[in-house]
Design a protein that fits this description.
The protein has about 280 residues and is α/β, with parallel strands linked by helices. Helix content is about 35%, strand content about 25%. Helix 4 packs antiparallel against helix 5 and helix 5 runs parallel beside helix 6. The chain starts with a strand and ends with a helix.
Length: about 280
Amino acid sequence: MVTIENLSFRYRKSKHAVIHDFSLFLEKGKVYGLLGKNGAGKSTLLYLMTGLLTPKSGRVLFHDTDVRRRLPVTLQDMFLIPEEFELPSVSLVSFIELNGPLYPHFSKEEMVKYLHYFEMDIDVNLGALSMGQKKKVFMSFALATNTSLLIMDEPTNGLDIPGKSQFRKFIASGMSDEKTIFISTHQVRDVDKVLDHVLIMDDSRVLLNASTSDICWNLLFQESDNNELTDRALFASPTVQGNSIILPNSNGEESEINLELLFNATLASTEAITQLFHNNK
């Protein structure tokens, strides 16, 4: 669905490229999670993917069309929810009447359904909502457009604890085999249950590019106070109970993925983590 080829970008007043010779391929029907440190270029990559920024070199193809052409055929089939946004002080009904027709597959019925996931209804004025409520409304609208590509930058920022739980159900309910959702976030615990695929980037490189099933097939996530296990671990992080550890999953055991631990392990021990995937392939 999306092909990123040798992408490079530098902001005008910066001496260093935010993204350099970056390549990636996204398939349809998956929920991707993009993880990276502050300043790694995650948000910049999202704006390049949607044609809002012009790369110095390279290109982004969406359904084989360069996104920089900003053609209606691509614009009506992708939606970006930035981390920060403004909504007009109008009724939600008016907002839908004005913006819904821009997207051929928009469904008002689905919009109402998604709002209900967040315990909201359609009869609200956008100007009277809190930032968290606006985010719930905007995400509901975005998913109801039924674009084949939905990109979200820090979608759970500003949501309360119930809202974060509702977000996971909301994403699961809106997925289909023809849709791709691409989430960039630091709040890994908010999305770990909805991701099909994990991307970890640093310094314009993709350090890890693997499905959650492959990650759990290759890596074993455990909590342990056993020093012997900790010494054998690929990576360990202290906890109140002892240590959170990652081991090679040599016996095919089942474990629940710990994205925060995986992220820290991949940055600290990149070769040890990624080598397991290459060896097994």
